[in-house]
Backbone:
């Protein structure tokens, strides 16, 4: 049974934070299970989130909740092993709304790192706002 592969030891990075205000809009707010907090990127094309897991995982589903008007129109999910090069696992086409959206991942290889690239935004300035982000899967052992 698939469950969240994001744990306390998972390392996350983001492309930017609005006005560098990590106390109010930092990456940790995507994972805090609080629907009133969020990661808010700064403006610019191709914002992204990367995750490095403490062990190899196989992915089965991506769950993301954007703020309507600040969602991505297209996303690319990439993954790799520890010292490998990122390769595309899936293309994702979210809707521009506030609901939690779920995207199945078919036949994903085992990965140690993933990168979710928000290729373009519904926002004119390229900002992305994510209230929650989760990846379901299993440990690949």
Residues:
């Amino acid at each position: 049974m698939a469950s969240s592969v994001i744990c306390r030891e998972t390392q996350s990075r983001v492309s930017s934070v609005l006005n560098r205000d990590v106390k109010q809009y930092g990456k940790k707010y995507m994972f805090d299970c609080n629907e009133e907090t969020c990661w808010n990127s700064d403006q610019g094309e191709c914002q992204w989130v990367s995750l490095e897991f403490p062990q190899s995982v196989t992915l089965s589903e991506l769950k993301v909740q954007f703020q309507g008007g600040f969602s991505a129109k297209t996303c690319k999910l990439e993954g790799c092993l520890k010292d490998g090069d990122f390769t595309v696992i899936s293309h994702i086409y979210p809707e521009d709304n506030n609901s939690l959206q779920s995207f199945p991942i078919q036949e994903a290889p085992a990965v140690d790192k993933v990168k979710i690239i928000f290729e373009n935004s519904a926002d004119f300035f390229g900002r992305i706002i994510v209230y929650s982000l989760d990846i379901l899967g299993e440990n690949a052992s």
Observations:
- Strands lie at 3-4, 11-14, 39-40, 47-66, 72-80, 87-92, 100-104, 111-121, 129-139.
